[in-house]
Specification:
184 residues; mainly alpha; 11 helices; 71% helix
Amino acid sequence: MIPLEDILSKVNHSREKRNYFANLILDHPELLPDLLLICARVDDEISCRASWGLEFLCKQHLQTILPYLDQFMLLVPKVHQHPAVRPMAKICEYLVLSYYKEKNTETKKFLSISHREKITEICFDWLITNQKVAAKAYSMTCLYLLGTEFDWIHPELKITLENNYSSGSAAYKARSRMILKKLK
């Protein structure tokens, strides 16, 4: 098999390339630990490409990452390049939606309380730091749903959204309005 890095060097934002990559990992799940290690090279551009591929994999088959959540949760707070933060935030959103909205039994089995607490911490960090709007929007959704379990989250989320509303982009304001409306 061609080394994973060589394959990743050809992955771009096109749906076709990301789909090819996701299917490769689905066909060879033994490559997932290596993919996570490449994602963890947070200062290297290839980590962004690896993150895009991981997001597409999780979109198609979220259960693939569940046995690796401990490794994933250690990785996510270290990710800092905007092109990699967005897919990590999206994966967190997939996990939270699967757990709280879809009530998926596999996700409920693997996504522990410590994982959910870590996602909460990460999402608040993304909301209050200089991130692109997509990561902030995914974080708002995660925090809203996590707040249905952890009662301290909704009041903090409300304060954070209200405090940052005036300086947010149009997209940030739109998502904030939607979440704030749900919080009332």
